[in-house]
Amino acid sequence: MPRFYSGLFKRDMEFPEESPPPGRMSFSALDADMTENCNLRCSYCFKGELALRRKMKLETAQQMVRWIVAYSNGTNHLVISLLGGEPMMAFDLLKQWMPFAFNYSRQRGKTLQVGITTNLTLFTEEHLAFFRFWKIGIHASLDGIPCVQDACRVFANGRGSSAVVERNLPRIFQAWRTVHARSTIVPETIPHLAESYRYFLDKGFLKVAFALANGEKWNDPECLAELALQIRKVLDIYFNAMRRDNRYYLLTLVDRFVRSEREPRQNHHCGAGRGLLHVDTEGFLWPCHRFNGIEPREELVIGHVNGGFHPVRRDALLAINPVKDIKAPCGTCDAVRYCGCPCIAANWQTNGDIFSPGEGYCKAQQVIYREIKSYMERVATESPEFYKKLIDWIFNYKW
Question: How far apart are CA 376 and CA 194, in angstroms?
């Protein structure tokens, strides 16, 4: 029985099998914490204040590449997303690891795509050259206009990060033009949502993703009313920008709505534990990066990159059926396909139950869905040719 010492749990962890059972769903993607260290202290960070500021060793980073190649089976395109902490604080490791990762994968007939989620505070000319050479995709974690950024995303000394981020943006876009801005929606900053979206466009972002934070503060009727107002304003800015520039801007709120209206409700949760796993700094495998966060639980660890696996835990994830298992009134909710399946890790962290998103989260999702639906119906009626063009962009646009 494989056994590995965990610094996080301060004891050995055992796994009944050496590897995933053959013939089951293969893996094609990994998230990886190259370091737990971070130079920011974001107010809503799901990682919290981890007791250990661990860093991944080069041998572990190399082994996770061997692992995903070995268990990707017939999948030829692999994705590794680098997280943290702030992964740019492990740049020396990246410089050693990247050549191995690409060469090892290519020599075994696999193409590898590497992306990084960064807070944008650490990006020099050296980083720019490195990212361009290896074609590393960038997912930018920032929240909006300076007052929002400086309220939620501060350095360890309490200083806001907006000024540093703005200085680095030109280099970021040189490294990867289609940087995806990822902004967390929290009740406290809702009044600035539309301003922040306009700010993203003005700064040059072509892709913007707003992500709703879990929490029961969404139960407040005034908060929900403000959310509805801001979504309408965001949509005004979004459509006006596309008409003005005659080009497509990706706004995930709308993209998800359009796709959900044309597809049946999924009968599975997200990719966590399915085609995706997360590798922590010690090489342990988790369903996704969020499960290795606030008060991580040993029973959620699925395996280790050096050869250990817990098939029963993985099978429990594969068996989750949102239609039957999620504790929410999905059967009577008009936003059910748009919502899909609430993040099971966020459910766990917020409510202690992977099946419970909480009443407030459901209300907020319903507000977003209804505002987008109403707006899109009006566009389809008043500007049918533009609406047709938008649908074509969403499904066929080549970045």
Answer: 18
| pLDDT tens per residue across span 85-134 | 899 999 999 999 999 999 999 999 999 999 999 999 999 999 999 999 99
Number of domains in the chain: 1
Is the bond preceding 85 in cis, omega lying within 30 degrees of 0?
yes
Rounded Cα gap, residues 129 and 123, in angstroms: 10
Instruction: Phi first, then psi: give them for residue 307, nearest 5 degrees.
Output: 115, 70
DSSP codes of every residue in 96-124: HHHHHHHHHHHHTT-EEEEEEEE-SS---
Q: Which of 8-22, 39-53, 77-91, 106-120 is predicted with the least confidence, judged by mean pLDDT?
A: 39-53
Distance CA 41, CA 53 (A): 14
Q: Are strands 29-33 and 3-6 parallel, antiparallel or unpaired?
A: unpaired
pLDDT tens profile 342-369: 788 778 777 788 788 778 888 898 999 9
Q: What is the mean pLDDT of the chain?
A: 91
Residue 33 lies in a domain: yes
- Examine residue 333 and state whether it is found in any structural domain, yes or no: yes
Structure tokens at 148: 């929002």
pLDDT at 178: 95
Paired residues of 82 in beta bridges: 32, 116
366 domain-assigned: no
How far does CA 235 lie from the centroid of its chain?
A: 22
Report in angstroms the alpha-carbon separations of 206 from 120, 202, 240. Answer: 17, 10, 14
Query: Which residue in 235, 179, 169 sits closest to 207, CA to CA?
Result: 179
DSSP element (H, E) containing 253: helix 252-262
Instruction: Write out the two tokens for 266.
Output: 């999924």
Rounded to 5 degrees, what are φ and ψ at 45? Answer: -55, 125
Nearest alpha-carbon partner for 343 in 303, 296, 288, 301: 288
Q: Answer yes or no: is 121 within a domain.
A: yes
Q: Output the domain CATH number for residue 264.
A: 3.20.20.70
Residue 213: per-residue pLDDT: 81
Residue 165 has pLDDT above 90, yes or no: yes
What tokens appear for 371 in the block? Answer: 């505002």
With a CB cutoff of 8 Å and minimum separation 6, the contacts of 62 are 97, 100, 101, 104
What residues make up the domain containing 301? Answer: 3-359
Tell whether the model's pLDDT for residue 328 goes beyond 90: no
